[in-house]
Amino acid sequence: MMRENSLKRVVLVNGIPASGKSTLTRLLSQQFGFPVLTLDSVKEPFMASFAPVDRQRNRQLGCAAYQAIWKIVGQAPAECIYLIDAWFGFQPQSVLEQGLQQAGVSEVLELWLQITPDEAVARYQSRLSQRMPGHPGAEYLPELRRLAEQAQPMALGPLLRVGTQEADHLRAVKWLRHQLTATGYTFPLNESNEEDERVTTALSATGRERRAL
Q1: pTM of the model
Q2: Are 156 and 88 spatial neighbours (Cβ–Cβ below 8 Å)?
Q3: Cα 151 from Cα 91, distance rounded (Å)
Q4: Tens of pLDDT along 119-172?
Q5: Cα–Cα distance measured from residue 70 to residue 207, given in angstroms and rounded to the nearest whole number
Q6: CATH 3.90.1150.10 fits domain 2-212
Q7: Domain coordinates of the chain in residue numbers?
């Protein structure tokens, strides 16, 4: 993939915990070949090193991981578009704006994962046994429900609200391709010809992974 200008972009895959960010991020990375940064992937090695981790230390490590993400983005060349998977609302929006500025980001594309309170609680609860020690447990469920009722996207640039269905994910792929093309990002000439077929294949693989869990 090539670029025609020096515009530095990031794609925020944003949503509350258990909203489906990882599934969508994985699909987008497979489709576009973009590198991924996730808050948990940066944070969890430190959680393991500093175990046991309580809620306060978890949050401190999350804030540090957040800053590390923007350091990584800032050191990357402009043509490197990162997919950043995180719940960005855990800190004030001003912290995000400062991180973007320090990283030299000039365009922010956001995919906002929408989920109902009941679905968010059910998903989080079903994954409690798989969560690394140090993440909030069942005591977090009432707070998560309130988040699902109130949380909103960052809305610092073009925004698409995405549901949890496969059709929503296909729409997200097409939207992201359109947004990048509109701002001068150039894809290989033959890449769009088989787009729907490749996305369908990726969605099918994702569906098999979900059923295997």
Answers
A1: 0.86
A2: no
A3: 12
A4: 999 999 999 998 888 899 999 999 999 999 999 999 999 999 999 888 899 999
A5: 32
A6: no
A7: 2-212
